[in-house]
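Consider the tokenized backbone below.
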């Protein structure tokens, strides 16, 4: 039960900040002058990204732990249940989102933050910042798009049953899902 609450609250922090970055901060940054934007990148963005990253980590680790416990309880039949199928698809999407945060968004944001700090300190902007900004934005928007089906599958695992036929192949479902993603 504690894991579920950790997963819930960490997920709210993570996805809430994901929506903030994409729907609020990004639009705001388009409207402000460069000096104000640099100040925001220097002071606000690192703090928000800290909660964003660690919200993703808390959500991911608690989700993996809950998945292990559920698979252990259901044994070999785990992927032959509605719960197992839905949670595995949602978990796959969540894992891709988590990897986007830690391997793409965060490293690219570090370059952008360092560039803003350099400009504030009287130095030159890092030319890589202009290259990585759209890459970070694309990864972040991908996470926004993934968040909708992710939330569906996470909710469906407990509330939407499937009629699973005899001879069902869980590997086929995961393979097709992976190809679709």
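A designed sequence for it:
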């Amino acid at each position: 039960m504690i894991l579920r609450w950790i997963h819930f609250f960490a997920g709210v922090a993570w996805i809430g900040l994901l929506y903030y970055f994409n729907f609020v901060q990004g639009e705001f940054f388009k409207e402000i002058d460069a000096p104000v934007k640099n100040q925001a990148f220097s002071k606000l963005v690192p703090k928000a990204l800290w909660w964003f990253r660690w919200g993703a980590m808390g959500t991911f680790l608690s989700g993996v732990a809950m998945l292990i416990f559920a698979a252990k309880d259901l044994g070999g039949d785990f992927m032959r249940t509605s719960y197992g199928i839905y949670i595995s698809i949602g978990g796959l999407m969540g894992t891709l989102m988590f990897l986007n945060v830690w391997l793409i968004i965060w490293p690219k944001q570090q370059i952008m933050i360092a560039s803003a700090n350099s400009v504030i300190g009287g130095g030159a902007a890092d030319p890589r910042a202009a290259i990585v900004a759209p890459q970070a934005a694309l990864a972040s928007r991908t996470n926004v798009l993934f968040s909708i089906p992710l939330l569906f599958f996470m909710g469906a695992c407990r509330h939407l049953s499937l009629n699973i036929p005899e001879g069902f192949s869980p590997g086929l479902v995961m393979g097709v899902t992976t190809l679709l993603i």
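The chain has a mean pLDDT of 90.
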